[in-house]
Amino acid sequence: MHGARSTLGLTALAGAAALAPQLYARVSARGRLKPASAADFDAADAALVLGARVWPDGRPSRFLRQRVEAGAALWNAGHVTQLILTGAGNNREGLDETAAMERAALELGVPGDALVKDPYGYDTRESARNARAQGISSVIVCSQEFHLPRAMWLCRSVGLTVQGAYPPVLATRHHTARGYVREIPATWKAAVEIARDAAT
Predict the structure, then answer these.
(1) What is the CATH number of the domain that holds 93?
(2) pLDDT band at 179; cut points 50, 70, 90
(3) Domain enclosing residue 39, as ranges
(4) Which are the contacts of 124, defined by CB distance < 8 A and separation ≥ 6?
């Protein structure tokens, strides 16, 4: 009996340790992570719209389209004056995520002079760094809800003031559930990278 209790205790501790970075990211994002339709965002320099999968014919995937829609909603509401469309200009399939994002944004009525493409945003950390290098100091990051706590932490780590805007959560899609699970190791990776940079 004592051995079983010890095993359960160790399992609980291991689970808590595995979740610690994600829990920290979520707590630190509290109050600044909202649906893209919310009316109470603080004005920011730009919406930082993060890249995602593009179909072979150049169409944005559902998740990517939703991220652009979130950015367009922020622009239409006057919370931002520009959208930074950041992703891989040449991803693993040889496709340009930012070109697909630009087409979607134009279709949604965002004018071309409000769009800035960053084809070197190969991951969230690089997207945040690139925005900072462009002189941006505050952003509203646009991505799915499961991704935003980590994305916001990475933005803060490079000196950006950050809020997060997410599209409607697609609760019935298995990709959404998988996204929440993937964020556990991904947030650990982010925590290690942030700690390493802070130590140098």
Answers:
(1) 3.40.50.620
(2) confident
(3) 25-199
(4) 50, 147, 150, 151, 154, 190
pLDDT tens-digit readout, 14-33: 445 667 888 999 999 999 99
User: Domains in the chain: how many in total?
Assistant: 1
> Which residue type sits at 144?
Q
Host H or E run for residue 180? helix 174-199
Query: Structure tokens of 29?
Result: 């994002």
Q: Does residue 15 lie in a domain region? A: no
Establish if 18 belongs to a structural domain: no
Pairing of strands 33-35, 138-142: unpaired
Within a domain: 192: yes
Is 0.90 topped by the overall pTM?
no
- The whole-angstrom separation of Cα 199 and Cα 135 is 24
